[in-house]
Amino acid sequence: MTKIEINGQVGDYKWSFGERKTDRTSIINHLIKKYNLKSYLEIGVRNGSNINKIIIDELVGIDPNLKPYKNVNKENLTLVEKESDDYFKNLDRKFDIIFIDGLHLEEQVTRDIDNSLNHLNKNGFLIMHDCNPPTNFHQRDNYCVNGSYPSWNGTVWKAYVKKRMTAHNIKMYVVNTDWGVGVIQLGTQELYPKIENLKYENLEKDRKKILNLISVEEFLKLF
């Protein structure tokens, strides 16, 4: 049985790969298994807690600081110590699925979305973390607060929503789990009415429509 917490739905679900709790990792592995995806790129590896659980033929992880992850040795994993902007500069290939979880600020996330879409295979998936901050505090600009690091989603949601308002050639959802897991594919969408100066109040007022927010159950029906 599932329930709702501050970060969205929690609980166990039956995915294409088996039963597991609902989070970004399960959503990624579900899509990989169901659609027979072969290549995966992760932007923002950190300590490897997500990429270590991804089951796919080829894994590529990029991060400007790979020191915490330097001793990992997986045969199908390539780690690149670079900023995402630098990694994409001379990249001449595409991936089946790309996960964005790097710097959680609007300007950088916008570049990561654009670069990822340019390097996504036709029927691939772009996944994003932290798309649904539950409070204004969660979407602050700075992670650190008085020397501590409370839960932080940053302004990822603004980069996502601006694509909801301007990009005709993609389709977008946010799954209401694990702080909001964005799912983007090439396709078409009806644009959300444009807001010039996007503020948290806009998200709070119309969260379901502005994000195209769906439940885990709805995700499993759609995908």
**Assembly state:** single chain
The number of distinct β-strands equals 12
The CATH architecture would be 3-Layer(aba) Sandwich
Beta content comes to 25-35%
Shape verdict: globular
Decide which structural class fits the backbone. Answer: alpha/beta
Under CATH, the homologous superfamily reads Vaccinia Virus protein VP39
- Span between N and C termini? 21 Å
Give the radius of gyration: 17 Å
The residue-averaged pLDDT reads 95
Main-sheet strand order equals 7-6-5-8-9-11-10-12
CATH class: Alpha Beta
Can you tell me the CATH topology?
Rossmann fold
Helix content, binned percent: 25-40%
Main sheet record = 8 strands, mixed
Encode the helix/strand succession as letters.
EEEEHEEEHEHEHEEHHEH
Number of helices: 7
Count of distinct structural domains: 1
Parts with pLDDT < 50 across at least 5 consecutive residues = none
How would you explain this protein's 3D organization?
The chain has one domain (3-222): Vaccinia Virus protein VP39 (Rossmann fold, 3-Layer(aba) Sandwich). 27% of the residues lie in helices and 26% in strands. The protein is built from seven helices and twelve strands. It has helices at 24-35, 84-89, 106-118, 156-166, 200-205, 207-211, 216-222; strands spanning 3-5, 8-10, 12-15, 18-21, 39-43, 58-62, 77-80, 95-100, 120-128, 170-175, 181-186, 213-214. The strands form three sheets. It has an eight-stranded mixed sheet with strand order 7-6-5-8-9-11-10-12, with helices on both faces. Strands 1-2 form a two-stranded antiparallel sheet. A two-stranded antiparallel sheet has the order 3-4. α3 (106-118) crosses α4 (156-166). The chain starts with a strand and ends with a helix.
